[in-house]
Structures are given as structure tokens and as C-alpha cells.
Amino acid sequence: MRAAYYEEQGPAHEVVRVGEVPTPEPGPGEVRVRVAVSGVHVGDVGKRRGYWGSTMTYPRVIPHGDGAGTVDAVGPGVDPARVGEPVWVYLAQSYRPFGTAAEYTVVPAGHAVRLPDGVGWEQAAVVGIPGITGHRAVFASGPAAGRTVLVTGPLGGVGRAALAVARRGGATVVATVRRAEQVDEVLAAGAHHVVVLGADAARQIRAIAPDGVDRVAEIDLAGNAALDVEILAVGGTIATYATGDPGASLPYWPLAFRNITVQFLSNDDFPEPANEHAARDLTAALAAGDLRYPIAARFPLERTADAQDAAERTGAAGRVVVEIDA
Predict the structure, then answer these.
(1) Which of 60, 72, 188, 305 is the most exposed place for a label (fewest CB within 10 A)?
(2) Each residue of 11-26: pLDDT tens digit?
(3) Third-level CATH fold of 131-264
(4) Using one digit for the tens of pLDDT, what is the confidence trace for 167-180?
(5) Residues 6+ apart with CB under 8 A from 33
(6) Domain extents for the chain?
(7) The Enoyl reductase (ER) domain covers which part of the protein (predicted)?
(8) Distance between CA atoms of 197 and 174, rounded to whole angstroms?
(9) What is the assigned CATH class of domain 2-126+293-323?
């Protein structure tokens, strides 16, 4: 099969190659998916570059954890009726060498989620890593119904998913943005209220949630910790999946005096029941049209290195995809 791959970590155009590699076969409990579209996430870029202390577990890695396509073979223990099923795929390259930047990928059967009618390949291909992370940020502390959830970075991949699932889960959803021109887009993505960050942000959030926010889905723990302390309810939670400064200190006593819980999230290691819960809710959100990602750039498989470079630049502008059959 044709695939993009790398055999050492480094800059995309120095290490990513495209060529023929052996087609993987599904083992027990696995399915093989003929990939239509591969989604690119900054986490894929980080693994390839060796960020966060990551190393290569396998001598050759086909990148990208997210994708969408059609089940074309099943391993022992999997219902043969799944052959021909359209699916979206998550964690394809988590502790595995066969990501979705290839004509075929093999994943555990539960990580290939049946795709409802009307959901296109592109939307399905980009929901996995950010969607499940956003879902976990909202629901790791339990049901969201009746809670107030604050989403930071609401136009990013994780933030958009958090907005959609929090609202669908019955929460009052507040979002913060840096520019006033982002407000309408965030409201359209699912927020009930949007606050532009500035000197008056804490007061505005407290006007919406007088007793404080119950949960924060946090994109920048270091940068936003001081504001989070001001607006969180006693016993509230910060669920954080990123930070601008990994070495920054936190306001320990203000957090402690308010009995704030800080949850650190990395989606390669979420419990499987949490992944399954997220997959169900995200699929429903896609089908209903409540979760939609702008697509910032599309590349053919031969330009996977360009796609990975683009994923580092696009941010809130949208997601990057690799079209396998293009």
C-alpha cells in the first residue's frame, strides 16, 4: 500500500517519506479500514518532532491518529458484517505504528465508529483526538447537566468539541475569546455566552455565573490560572489539556482555599469507557450538525509533510486533512 511514514524524528520535510509499505492485516478484535481522509492534529506533529519527551517505539511510524474510511477486513472475533461499514477512526497511532496517513490502517474494532448517514469524510476524519479530549474536559468530573462550563480556546479543535458536547449535555456554556470579532463564530459553534478577555473578564463571567463556574476546559493552564481562580466556584474543576508555559508556577493557595481540582488530560491514555462515551456523543453531535470543523487546508498523500507543517500554523483557522485518494 501507499503510505507516508518516518523512521526517525525531526522536521517534516527531512524525515517524512511517501512510498510502498506492507499492507497491515487485522488481528484478533481488530478491523482494517481503507482510509478516505486522514486528519492531522498538532499531537501528530509533536510525536514526529519528539516534543514532550516522546520517542519512537517502532522503527517505522505511519503518522496520524484520526481518519475516516470504510471497513474492508476484520480479524478473528469481529462480526464480518462490519465489512463495508463507513467509520471514523481514533487513536490509530496511539501505541501503534499504523496511523491513517496511508491507504489502509488497522485499529481495535471499538476505535472504528460507525458513521451516520450525511456526515462527510472530512468532518469524520478530524473529530478523533480533539473531539475526545474536548469531551473528557467537560465530562471527566461527571454529568454536565445543570452545570456552568467555561471553554477557553473555543475555536480550536478541542474547544469546538467541548462547546458542542457541553451544550448537548445540558450545561450553560460560557466561552472566552481574545478578539471581539470572534464572538459571533463562537456563539454559532454552541456557546450560550462569550466574554472577550480583558481587565473586566472576571466580572463579566461572574455576572453570568454568580456562584462561579463549575468547570473550565482549559487550553492554557499557565496563562489562565489567575483568571480561573477568580471565576471558579468552590469545589470547581480545571480540566487542562495544554499550557503555554510548561514550567510556570500555579497560584497554589488560592486554588487550595477554593478546593479546586486540576485534572491533567492526555488522550492517549483515557480510560476506554471514557473513549466510548465520547465516541457516542461526538457521533451524535456530528449527525445533528452541532459539531462542525472548518477545513483550513487539504493535501494529497504525497504532500503529507506539507500537511503537517500546515497543522502547526492553522490553529483556530481550521483543521488540516490529507485526502488519500486525491
Answers:
(1) 188
(2) 999 999 999 999 999 9
(3) Rossmann fold (3.40.50)
(4) 999 999 999 999 99
(5) 67, 69, 70, 71, 72, 87, 89, 100, 104, 105, 106, 107, 112
(6) 2-126+293-323, 131-264
(7) 12-322
(8) 12
(9) alpha beta
